[in-house]
Amino acid sequence: MTKPREAAWSHNTSNLSGPWSHSDFHPDGIMQLFIEQLLNGIAMGSLYALVTLGLALVYGILRILHVAHAAIYTVGAYVGLLVYNLTGSLALSFPGAMVACAVVGVLIERFVYFPLLKYPPYVPLIGSIAVMLAIEELCRLIAGPYILTFPATLPFPEIHIGGITISSTLLAVYVITTAVLGLLWYITNRTELGLAMRATSQDLAIADAMGMHSHNIVSITFIIGSSIAAIAGVLVGIHYNQVYPTMGTVPAYKTLAIIVVGGLGSVPGAVIASLLLGVAETLLIGYANIPLPRDALAFIAMIGVLMWRSEGLMGSK
Amino acid sequence: MSAYLITIGTLIVIYAIVVCGLNVIVGYAGQISLGHAAFFGIGAYTAALLATKAGLSFWTGLPIVILISGLIGLLLGLPSLRVRHDFLAITTIGINFIVEAIFLYIPFFGGALGIGGIPRVFLFGIKLKGAAFFGLCLFFLVLVLLIAWWFTRSWAGLACFALREEEEAAASMGISPMRFKLLAFVIGTAMAGLGGALYAHYMRFISATDFSFPVSITFLSMIVLGGMGTLWGPVIGAILLGVLPELFRPIVDYRMLFYTVILLLMIRFQPEGLLGEGSFIRRMFSPKFSGETR
User: Fold this and answer.
1) Is the pLDDT of residue A8 over 70?
2) Conformation bin of residue A93: beta by default, left when phi > 0, alpha when psi is -120 to 50
3) A123, A292, A293 ranked by CB distance to B271: nearest
4) Fewest CB atoms within 10 A around its CB: which of A16, A88, A101, A167?
5) C-alpha–C-alpha distance, residues A26 and B83, integer Å
């Protein structure tokens, strides 16, 4: 009866800790467990951040809730797996997935969003939901409804510090997320392209009038956001050793809650909110016995934020 | 009529009632709601609990169901309607997820097993099923359409239209945005509650997944397809999206794909819907030259 539940996004923590066993219990075992939970939470938050980034970028520039972004992430996982199975090389798998996702992202932007910009915001939103469901269906029809395994290991070492182990995938998630965030920060704050992106996100029409090809800037934003989603897709696929058609469903809506918590369109806000949510989910499920599923937590946090500070953590009025 | 057609017809009429409610919120008052299935579910669960735990009949339970749905609509509308546009869209998605989670995780609501054994509807001692129940649903649909029509003619409806077109301008004319948005929201959720009660007594078994987020999307697609803010749009949309999956049944594997592609093409090339302002059907049947004024 139960379908493959969105494992990567709604895992319970006991599975997350995976290879670690806490059988060798000693006085600081509780502290050790706490730190490991925290590390897991940060990894979870980093993966959220990678997917949410694209959403925040797109919202910042087009004011569209790009729900289909999560479908791009699914495409990334599938293409990454395909390339890995064909070539056996992760070095080709990541770029392959990024290129495929960038193409899908730009196609969505050119053929769905751009022509719909003149309508009220719910019109592109419904279009986006339709695109997302269509891509999910395509994935299911092409690759089958099963959970595929992604048996790759990332070339990162395992680290042991004082009884705490950081597995190679966790380390990979940290390193890759940090690298992506650093690169993105560099592009948006230190390059001419970044300046153009910021100008376009402030006012598309004025940016156009100032001689920028704002449509191209929008496309570049989609390329950046979609390739980051591809990285997230491949990482999640490897981390949980699972790739399946509906893996984007929970992220699709959870990332919406995250960008509201972070402040709609604010990239730093989205990253902070993702990390906070990842840690909060892991710790709350691990320590407090809340009767609600962890997926509802994001929305409860969101409604709390809307009551208390409706512009979000980092947003401006 | 065969039982198959009656089953599909009954579900379409129930959906049309719920979508009429959504139309009051989205079409008339211009407040996007992506969580309408939650209120449909609240109606269905209230009716199911009243019937199975309190032992009330459909008819004594119905006013309570409508009252509770409207009241929860009011309670959830108060905080949600403070925010606008995109925030409101996401908040209503959140409401849908939280309500579904409550149904699914709190044992009082039957948990994952849902609620079964909901009795059929009796009228003058006669058990209503098949075509008779279809007739009952049709009666309620006509009632809902009359209320919707009356709403568009009323002062409150006019105020909602003004809010939909330009909130600041309407507010400066002395129309309280909050009051009329809430009014539309409560009417809409009460209609969803009515649909939910009919659904519960028709299916006689309900579970949380019947009211999940994709159902909200289906409802929204129905008014998008039919035409937002039109009286008959919800009915046309419910009929089309109710019948299409049945027509696609022979190619069952590709059904969802066709469904989503049709929605995508519709929103891309005809976002006003089949009956909305400026749609090709409107243009075809409107008097000459009136198309120029758009």
Assistant:
1) no
2) alpha
3) A123
4) A88
5) 51
- The mean of the pLDDT values for chain A is 84
The 3-state DSSP class for residue A161 equals strand
CATH number of A35-308: 1.10.3470
Three-state DSSP state, B278: coil
Structure confidence at residue B84 as a pLDDT band (50, 70, 90): low
| ipTM of the shown complex | 0.80
Nearest to B83 among A119, A295, A306 (CB): A306
**pLDDT reported for residue A182:** 94
Chain B residue with Cα closest to A122 = B32
Q: Between A22 and B136, where is the model more confident?
A: B136
pLDDT for A93: 93
pLDDT at res. A14: 40
Task: Please answer whether residues A61 and A121 qualify as being in contact, where contact means their C-beta atoms are separated by less than 8 angstroms.
Answer: no
Q: Which of B109, B79, B87, B78 is closest to B34 using CA atoms?
A: B87
Distance from C-alpha of A296 to C-alpha of B221, rounded to nearest angstrom: 24
Q: Which of A116, A139, A258, A306 to mutate to test the interface with B (most CBs of B within 10 A)?
A: A306
CB of A75 closer than 8 Å to CB of A104: yes
Q: How far is A187 from chain B (nearest CA, A)?
A: 28
Work out the number of other CB atoms within 10 angstroms of the CB of residue A103.
16
Which is nearest to A302 in space by CA: A250, A258, A271? A258
Calpha distance A250→A229 (Å, rounded): 14
Residues 171-230 of A with CB under 8 A from B: none
In chain A, domain spans: 35-308
